[in-house]
Amino acid sequence: MLSRRRKRQAEEDAKRDQDQAKFEERALETLGGPISTMPGAIEPGELLWCRHYQWLKDAGYLLRPRYSPGWVPSWQGTKKDWMDCEDSRGPLIQHILDATRISDGLFVTLKLMKKSRHPYEIEIGQLFSSEALASDPANHCVPIYDVLHLPDDEDRAIIVMPLLRPFTKPRFETCGEVVECFHQLFVGLQFIHRQRVAHRDCMALNIMMDATRLFIDPYHPQDIVMRRDYQGEARCFTRTQRPLKYFFIDFGISRRYDANNVAPLESPIKGGDKTVPEFQKSNEPRNPFPTDVYYLGNMIRNTFLLTKNGFEFMEPLVNDMVQDDPAKRPTMDEVVARFDQILKQLSGWKLRSRVVDKEDGNITGLVRGVTHWTRRIGYIIRRVPAMPTP
């Protein structure tokens, strides 16, 4: 009985491999050349999206024309430079793609994941998206709109989330904008920890923002400087004019613990930030909550304190968050309490001051300074808050 079952499974696997090979062959024929050598052509890692175009459409999500059956590059047979064409833009990370929700035209992100590799990602993501937690203003976890299980692979699923972009692009204009970002991230990680969840990889790449309100022109999801239709650069407001919300993403290696387990132990997992002191000399299991505090503190240190002027008021708190000894780091409850005290000492004048990059030259600084003062006076006259709270 077992041998017949194995034989049937082997036959099914062989058929799936044949179907995949046939699809790739058809894709090659459509493009008129090898996938990997033709500029702007479909990459091997994109073929899964092509193969599931109609299935996703039936599920309510429309991919860009690049992934539709029989796609012909818009520059083919013309004098256009392929780099100037919208449909030349594939995903920056091949397991993450953009789409449009057909029911309301909302731009979304699709993340392809393996359930066996990240068995808790969907469960933890749906926890934070549950009715009980989704409305909490302290919740800064990326919402999950939908989970689609691939029809031809039981181990893979697609998580549907809002379309987000890196939290530092476009640049911060004022100190108050940065301080509001700190506030949301501190409260957000405190919220995660209060649910007894350790993120375990909350570094810069896993912090993003919903910039929908910020942009006058919808931006292209794979080339965020450009408009979605690729007819020029996307124009935007400042964060002070259009306050926005920041999110923690990627709960692939996150873990949730029982409330009675106050000091859980986990073997080190080397995430995006490889500088965690407790992981340098030993592979002994560690409490992941103090490590989260380090990740966030180190992000602030590298992204702001070391590269920009004017944030010296954050140094004592950040220095404590990144101490070598995890036991000496503050908890997120303590971080939030100390940050609240820091906020009380910041004047409106300080919050409205310009964010100055340490590498700014004289000319760049002068141009940005003139623009900043013009906006600043306007904000004061119109009584726009110095800390742009969404």
Automatic annotation (TrEMBL):
SUPFAM superfamilies: Protein kinase-like (PK-like). Residues 1-390 form the Protein kinase domain. Residues 9-21 have a biased composition (Basic and acidic residues). It comes from the Eukaryota. Residues 1-21 are annotated as: Disordered. GO terms for molecular function: ATP binding; protein kinase activity. This is Protein kinase domain-containing protein. It comes from Serpula lacrymans var. lacrymans (strain S7.3) (Dry rot fungus).
